[in-house]
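Quick question about two entries, pasted in order.
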Amino acid sequence: MSETEIKLSCRGVWKLFGNGAEAFLNDRSAPPSFEQINNAGLIGAVRAADLDVRQGEIFVIMGLSGSGKSTLVRCLSRLIEPTAGEILFEGRDLLRASDREMIEIRRHRMGMVFQHFALLPHLTVLGNVAFPLEVQGIDRKTREDRARGIIELVGLEGRENYYPRELSGGQQQRVGIARSLAVEPELWFLDEPFSALDPLIRREMQDEFIRLQSVLKKTIVFITHDFDEAIRLADRIAIMKDGEIIQTGTPEELVLAPATDYVAEFTRHIPRDKVMTAASVMTPWRDGVETAGEVNAGDRIGEIADKVESADRPFAVIDGDGTRAGLIDARAVIDVLVGRTGHHPVGEGG
C-alpha cells in the first residue's frame, strides 16, 4: 500500500485512564500486559493500537461493550487525548497539532455522527443541517443552499421546516448524518449511529448509508458491536478486545481465517455466503466459454446465488478495472451454500 492511499493511521496508540498513566508507560522497557495495567490501578481502554484507513474505504472498528472501540475513535479525532502513540492524518501527526489547529481540522475536514442524535430542538431540519456552516461563518444563503442539497441527498426533501420533535428516530438520524456532511468532510467518523434504532429502521439506514457512500466515496471509520452490520458495510474490519486490536481484515478473511479463538467465536454464526465473494471461488477466465452474463469480483455469493444457480451457463467475473478475471457457475455457488470447500472447474463434469 502506498502512503498516498492511507488517509488516517495510528501507531502504538495507548489510552490508559487513572493517575500516573503516562509515567507508568514511560517507566517500562516493554509494553505492559493487561494484568499489569489492572494491578497498577489503571484502566487500559486502548492498548498499542495500530491501524491504517485507506482513502475512500469504510473501515469498521468493532467489539463488544467495553472493548475500547469508542475510546479509540475519540483518540483518532483527539476528542480524547491518547496517553502515547502517533495519529497520522495524511501523514501529519495530529498529536503535534495545537488545540486551535485541531478545532479547524474538525470544523472543515472531519465529520462526526454519534449514537445519540444531539439535534438542536429549537432549530428546524434546515437550521440543524446548516448549523456547522454557520459556525464557520458562511453567509446564510450559501449555507442554506448547501444544506438543502444535503437534505435532498439523505432523503428528507420536503421536511426542511420540521423540528426534531416532529420526526421519527430514523429521520432524526438522517438529519444528524446530513449535518455531519454539511462541512464536506474528508474523513467521516460514525460511532454506533444506528444502534438506537428499531431493527427495521436500522436496516433501512444501513441501505441508505451504502447508497450515500456509493455517491460520496468518503473515507469512513465506523464503530459497531454488531458483526452483521459490520459485514454489510465494511471494506475492512478491526476487531477489538480488552483495548487491543486482535485482527484486521476483510469480512471474508475474518470468517475464513480467524487469527484467534475469540475471533472464531465472534464470527462463528456468520454464513459464508454473506462474506465470500465471486473472486474467491471463481476459476480463471478462458476464452471461448459462452457465459450467461457478468458479476463483479466483489459481489457476495449470497447476493448473486439465485441468478447464478438458475443459469445453465457460467457467469463472467469482472474485476475492478473491467477485465474478465474469471468464471463462476452454479456448482461453485452451491458449494459455498452447503459448506463445501472446493468445486469443479467451470465447464467440466464430475
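Here is the second entry:
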Amino acid sequence: MTQIANENDRVRTKPPVLEADAHGQAALMLAESMLHALMENGTFTTRQALSVVSTAQEIKVEFAEAAHESRARMQASLDLLTAIGDSLDHELT
C-alpha cells in the first residue's frame, strides 16, 4: 500500500491487519486459562479472579492514555478483558 506524502514522494505503509495477532491470541488464551485453573484449584476465588481482570482494565486505560492510543484500539482491548471477566463470572452461577 502506498500513500502520497506530497506529489514527489511516496511513503510505504503496512497493509491493514486483517487477522488478530497470533502472539496476542495465545497470550490472552493462556492468561484466561490460568485464571480458570487458579479458580479450579481453589487458589483464587471467582471474586479475586474478577478483581485481576478489573485491575487489568484499569491499567489498560492508563497505558492507552499515556501512549495516545486510539479510543477504538483501547476499547477493543477492554472488550476482550470484559469477555474474560464474563467467562469467569459464569463460575459464580
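Reply: Residues 46-66 form the longest helix (21 residues). The longest strand covers residues 2-4. Hope that helps.
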